[in-house]
Amino acid sequence: MNDPSKGNLKIHITSESSGFPVADARVRISYTGVPDSVLEEVTTDSSGQTDTLALDAPPEEYSLEETAEEQPYAEYTILAEAPGMEPVSIAGAEILSGVTAIQNIRMRPAGPDTEGEERFVIPAHTLYGNYPPKIPEDEIKPVSETGEIVLSRVVVPEYIVVHDGSPRDSTARNYYVKYKDYIKNVASSEIYATWPENTIRANVLAIMSFTLNRVYTEWYRNQGYDFTITSSTAFDHKWIPERNIYDTISSVVDELFADYLSRPNVRQPILTQYCDGRQVQCAGWMTQWGSKSLGDQGYSAIRILRYYYGDDLYINTAEAISGIPSSWPGYDLEEGSTGDKVRQLQEQLTAIAGAYPALPKLTADGIYGPATADAVRRFQGVFGLPRTGVTDYPTWYKISEIYVGVSRIAELT
Description:
This protein is α/β, with parallel strands linked by helices. The protein has 3 domains: 6-121, Immunoglobulin-like (Sandwich); 155-320, no CATH class; 326-412, Muramoyl-pentapeptide Carboxypeptidase, domain 1 (Orthogonal Bundle), CATH 1.10.101. The chain has helices at 61-64, 179-190, 197-217, 247-256, 288-296, 301-309, 340-353, 370-382, 393-412; strands at 6-15, 26-31, 38-43, 53-56, 73-81, 88-96, 100-107, 118-121, 155-156, 159-163, 174-178, 229-230, 245-246, 259-262, 274-275, 286-287, 314-317, 320-321. A 5-stranded mixed sheet has the order 3-2-5-6-8, with no helix packed on it. Strand 2 (26-31) and strand 3 (38-43) form a beta hairpin. Helix 2 (179-190) crosses helix 3 (197-217). The longest helix is centred in the middle third of the chain and has 21 residues, at 197-217. The two termini are 42 Å apart.
């Protein structure tokens, strides 16, 4: 799997109606454009996941060199089928050399009117395809204290509403998307996951700050629209329904998702605009290829951002995170930890185990012993986190996220 001309793919299938994993789904993978030539056929396990598959990909340097003209990723078509479910076909899944692509698929229960599969076609990556350049805006929005809905503090939303088109396109569909999933999708659509970690961090921070500015200022709702943000690169970021994300980007978002960028004495997150720096130039904004070059030179994420946006930019953390039962305690929970936070963790893991049979159920005694550490380790393995057995910040919020998902559906049913 370390072959430089190989990339990895892991597929995770859940039910759209229950949020539970779909076991024993049959997944067939072919080159996009050659659907009848099946390269791999695999089956999901009890957690709704496939093994990690190694697939051919172009050389890694195609995604690392700004002057490269060749397409840096291979395109595959994924067909998922499961008893009682509507089949799903995704054409154009992007496999980059040396990183793991994660394809999340939500399957709908089949009904009497089901005809064929639900089909998605993933367009070209923004760094490779041709997309409209961003229309410049002020990075700090004028906020009226009267007549406008403006939040009193920065809150990370649980969901945002994405309008899949330009603002005035009334035929475009609105999607309810989990905030973290949105950020992972956009970053995977707009930068290459092979880039330096600090470059990925800088770009993720810019994407999150821009998005939270839209949330905080109610930018589109104050213009009479019923959505948070659009998928048009002329106005916002590129977001693509059902596209794959990447492990290197996912882990950064899980670590930083409550952060945004600030200026002194400005309450709102900064509308951090950027462009690619190759097809489009943008004075005063970050360029994506430029940020990659600075990452190669060893710049930290904040140094990259300040290089473009100025030295008075700093990283802030939202005061609240919506849609979670309880916030992270502020320190890691590990073997020897005790108390209410441990008990809550044990209760949540046990509820999750009701949907994911590969995970053990725990006695909620408030003592973080070997059994709890093992349950956390197994959870981390299923959900792509480092298997440490320690409940750190990303693990706490991933457990909260999955717990809310499976328990909310259970309450509704």
